[in-house]
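Holo model, adenosine-5'-triphosphate. Inputs:
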Amino acid sequence: MLSIDHLTKHFGGLPALNDVSFDCPAGRITTLIGPNGAGKSTLINCVTGVLVPDKGSVRLEGTEIGREPSYRIPYHGIARTFQNLALFPRLSVLENVLSGLTVEAETGFLKSIFRPPATRNHERRLRLKAMEMLDRFVLAGKADWPVGELSYGDRKRVEMARALVSGPRILFLDEPVAGLNAEESAAIGEEICRLRNLGLTILLVEHDMDLVMAVSDGIVVLDSGELIAQGSPEEIRHNPKVIEAYLGRMSVTA
Ligand SMILES: Nc1ncnc2c1ncn2[C@@H]1O[C@H](COP(=O)(O)OP(=O)(O)OP(=O)(O)O)[C@@H](O)[C@H]1O
Ligand SMILES: [Mg+2]
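Output:
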């Protein structure tokens, strides 16, 4: 579904990604792991138009998207969350989730000023969609709260809700359970598996190895911008290179 080929990105001469190639098969969870600074977020940023890669290509079902600007990315059915949350703290939970519907919210200049009945109906449908998504993430009771007043766990779930509200085909999740407690992490893990079972293609970045080993169909390992291994969770768990570069430095219980 998504093919990443020879992707390369330097910052000031230092390689953050060096000639990285792998595929994300349709309807599967592919997980990107590796030490801090390995290039995981850089890869998601290159694939979603936040950064322009120096070299290489990103193809979605054969169509090159590696140089698409970020505002075009949702039109391809792609959505993402950000490692450091990219919410609007003063806007309400509902408004933040509605901001994930920009593609569907386009009504044209005149219609947005005069708001004829069809436009008002359209807006009502969008709000309903957003409320359904809030319900799924147990946030409906906080729809009117400013996001800045929410707990960290709630804010992480608002990010997920905003990414999902447009009904994407591909989802990139950059550390969705970082900073969450065990119960909150398990709930997000279940949601990620449910989305995969509904047919979504997912690229997950995560350090929580219990979650990674439990949900991943395939794992790709980056270290200092290089792809050092890829395989099934079982293969990766026992790969000496991965143990030396990453897993050996963590306590793996899964
Ligand atoms: N905008 C930027 N400008 C300069 N250097 C950057 C930029 N973004 C990332 N880097 C550098 O690129 C390298 C890869 O960073 P990246 O954020 O992709 O790592 P990561 O694998 O996501 O790490 P973490 O697990 O800590 O999130 C790091 O050395 C980082 O300092
Ligand atoms: Mg990162």
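Residues 117-136 form the longest helix (20 residues). The radius of gyration is 19 Å.
Archived with the compound record.
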